[in-house]
Amino acid sequence: MTVAETPSRDDATSAEVAISIRDVDKVYGQAESAVLALDAIDLDIRRGEFVTLIGPSGCGKTTLLRIIAGLEAPSVGTVGFGPRATDGPLRSMVFQEHGVLPWMTVLDNVAYGLRVRGVPKAQRLEVARSYIRMLGLTRFENAYPRQLSGGMRQRVSVARAFANDPEILLMDEPFGALDEQTRMMVHADLLRLWQEHRKTVVFVTHSLSEAVLLSDRIVVMSSRPGRIKESISVPLERPRHISEAQSSPEFAAVRGRLWDALRDEIELLNAQEASAPPIPRRSVWRRLIR
């Protein structure tokens, strides 16, 4: 099977659009010190689609995710959302670092979003326990984060995000700090939950394999300023089983195409860094910040 092309915008709008990003720029700083982080980002994400953003370091993946989350405002352009399907929250975000609250048990962490929304205690604990059970954490529901492994803490973060029942789930390199074996286990958990609930997901990663394994579509971004270089559909059937997916020729084909798309951008980034002025010595920095 060949790597499929992503539908054009006209094709995409024939399905219900969950996120509509139009001509978004993001500039940091002012005047001569201004840095253009994102340039003319134009993207539709369909309801129930799992889309991954990938690109060189510093290309603006996290910045774009934060703009979608409403944590930052675009300098130019708009981000719109489709009709609401539920009364739940529009967006939930899972961050790079463990977002669990250290003074709360696993059960209270997973139920936290529902508590903030005013869901009655009995109902929120029932929902929380159902996700704790799905992710194999029942034995640890009364444990505190310090008593859990890194993979278990990330399972708690994922469980809390799904329990809050958002329409859109935003994930910023949530598994980057995990070892390979633990990451594979958490991937399986996420794939199972996504298959059951079909949330719209926007996922950021540096891992080509992770992007191919999880996604319906992968958006490749250029080196800074971040632009959309290519959008690639992943032709792996769902539901996906990790070992079968990773050994398939389709997996290898998409991963190879991703590397082809990224290689020039990484070489460009390396060339830019090589030609940049040297970083001042520490004593110079001290003078600069006085």
Outline the structure in words:
- The structure is a single chain.
- The chain is of the alpha/beta class.
- The protein has a domain of 200 residues: P-loop containing nucleotide triphosphate hydrolases (Rossmann fold), CATH 3.40.50.
- 40% of the residues lie in helices and 21% in strands.
- It contains ten helices and nine strands.
- A six-stranded mixed sheet has the order 5-6-7-3-8-9, sandwiched between helices.
* Beta strand %: 15-25%
For CATH, the homologous superfamily of one domain is named as P-loop containing nucleotide triphosphate hydrolases
Structural class based on helices, strands and sheet pairing: alpha/beta
Multimeric organization: single chain
Radius of gyration: 20 Å
N-to-C series of helices and strands: HEEEHEEHHHEHEHEEHHH
Furnish the topology, listing elements before pairings.
Layout: H1 9-12, E1 17-28, E2 35-46, E3 50-54, H2 61-69, E4 76-81, E5 91-94, H3 106-116, H4 121-134, H5 150-163, E6 168-172, H6 180-197, E7 200-204, H7 208-214, E8 217-221, E9 228-233, H8 242-246, H9 249-275, H10 282-289
Parallel strand pairs: 3-7, 3-8, 5-6, 6-7
Antiparallel strand pairs: 1-2, 1-4, 8-9
Give the tags.
three-stranded antiparallel sheet; disordered C terminus; Rossmann fold; disordered N terminus; 290 residues; 40% helix; alpha/beta
Summarize the structure.
With 290 residues, the protein is α/β, with parallel strands linked by helices.
